[in-house]
## 1
Amino acid sequence: MKSPLKPPFNPTVKVPSALARPAFPVRLKPDAGVPSATKLIADYAGPVMAKSQNGIKQITQTIAPDGVGLDSQAVRARMVHKLAAQGLSDAQVLAAMGLVERHRFVDTALVNQAYEDTSLPIGLGQTISKPNVVARMLELLRGGALDASGKLGRVLEIGTGCGYQAAVLSHLTTEVYSIERLRGLHDKARENLRTLRLPNVHLLFGDGMMGYAKGAPYAAIIAAAGGQAIPTAWIEQLAMGGRLVAPMQTASGAQALVVVDKTPQGVRQTLLEAVHFVPLKSGTS
Ligand code: SAH
């Protein structure tokens, strides 16, 4: 008798329709034609397809890196489950976290840690926050004003990094303006986001300490790097009724999350739990 297949093997292999869906996440040059299996294997962590003489055939080889499993959706579902168990409760945030393939934003060598609750290096001395912190900040952000459809309006993100949080934000907002001061990471984010085709994400290269006045006012501002104070430009560019969430250095020298609400009665600042973000720096490089 055949023994039943056990997880993590998933017998219902999803067949990505490489030809039907132009957004298939394989990096192709426009004139590259049908990708070779080797190219697919290099670029895609999942079951792959290749063109055979008589049409499309599926390569049964599993190429997912250890730890991600055959179906990364299942691994993400587990991550979301854990986030919920940790007390994160905003269904929209959890759904968005379940949608974005975090493993596409980290180096190949770190792919097997992509869905663990850990921060990961993204190059140039910077890190991607752990999923729990990303979800927490987005939940706080959504505690501010939402539009009629339950989304945040135009949002400014300071510190694009690898582009992961911008991708999650794209599902929760009407527009995302994300600014990065390191050219290398700005380019990396552009590359990471290219195949995802998120038309509401706008990547900017520049010093986010000055915000991005052209997109203001913002319904919300989120920073992924912490300074000694909240730059005044951010408060100025925040819409009335808008909310800002950022790490900031506290009086004791430690770093904590701060929520700033801009109200007709004035700016209200709430200090929350301790966090560990990379420093907010001025200028570009
Ligand atoms: N949200 C990111 C996390 C990136 S880490 C992600 O999902 O990957 C924080 C980023 O903030 C770093 O890339 C760092 O270069 C950037 N940063 C720091 N100071 C900045 C500034 N003044 N303007 C823009 N980006 C800044």
Note: The CA atoms of residues 162 and 189 lie 5 Å apart.
## 2
Amino acid sequence: MKKRALITGITGQDGSYLADYLLGLGYEVWGLVRRTSLDPMLRLGELTKHTGMHINYGNLRDSGTLRFALEESKPDEIYNLAAQSDVGISFKCPDETMEINYHGLGRLVHEAVRVRPDVRIYQASTSEMFGKTKPPQNELSSFQPVSPYGEAKLLAHEHFVKGYREKHGLFICSGILFNHESPHRGEHFVTRKITISLSKIKLGMQDSFSLGNLEAKRDWGFAGDYIKAMHLMLGRKTPADYVISTGISHTVREFVEAAARALGINLSWSGSGLDEVARDDKGKVILTINKEYYRPNEVHHLMGDSTKARTELGWSPEVTFDGLAEMMAKADYERLSKLR
Ligand code: NAP
Ligand code: F7E
């Protein structure tokens, strides 16, 4: 019998990598997809034609659609990746963020235990739950979220992951994942914004772009490495929570520099604060600072300690920071040069 997995958020960055990975392992994959005005299947591409791939239209806001998706897919494993995942937007849309990221998991777990009480569930938790806690952060660190996004994910973790695991014996794991990126990354996240903008500048399709806080430090890894940890967690004897990270952090500025290097752009910085700029080797300003991109409350430094995952799951990341920036910059440059 083939194993069956239901993935919510299958049209997102992680969903597309995870679907590909599980299909490769011989799984039958079911994806929950919400209706959108544009084609939601862009990231899935050829995967939608795979005989092992099935789509359920549904929404984490709608219990009925979740029940139907669960009854139809009869999953052995559920990966809850669906979310309002943009931290900056969560300050502007806190209710929407809470509705999907907290109540959405509640609806899913409630329906899942009725349809299939022995199902194994992965919940996409996040390093944003640590917020102001000093790095390195691990499973024993305290949680001090500073954004509506981090708060909603923390409530989901406390109430539905720990709550259902401890009180109802449900097999449910939290993957506390630090930032992970790829050529499939949403275009408004800082790494992808940088690789798209620098590629367009190099191709003469754009003059310059703006960023916010260049000094924020993140522990950036490759999404293709991180989805493997999700699958490993559900293969354990007992459910637990795991930090997934590289253990190395870099500033946003360093990501700009790494992506520019990969594209052969020689950057020089001048000025400070909101007046800081970066120029290319001809002296043309290609990057400015815009306070619009600063957040009302910032997480300044995230750096994970993933010793538990490395020891218990045998997981480790393969792609380095420079390798990731190069992979993303080159993918955007090649894609955009075909469009030009
Ligand atoms: P993403 O690219 O933004 O994908 C989010 C997915 O959720 C999309 O498929 C989206 O559908 C779907 N979705 C949003 N609202 C929904 C709703 N109401 N009902 C059903 N589906 C809905 O996010 P990602 O980077 O792949 O991240 C996956 C998960 O990991 C998220 O839960 C995120 O919060 C969490 N996480 C991400 C990171 C990271 O660095 N990437 C780190 C830690 C945790 P559409 O395609 O229709 O928009
Ligand atoms: O910001 C700074 C910004 O939006 C990273 C999500 O996947 O990872 C992601 O959340 C940093 C922040 O990711 C711009 O202030 C500067 O300090 O790429 P980001 P994020 O907020 O870390 C966590 C782990 C998740 O769980 C989330 O779902 O970059 N920054 N200038 C900027 N950020 C953006 N987006 N745009 C800028 O212009």
Note: The chain has two domains: 4-182+220-248+303-313, 190-216+251-300+321-339.
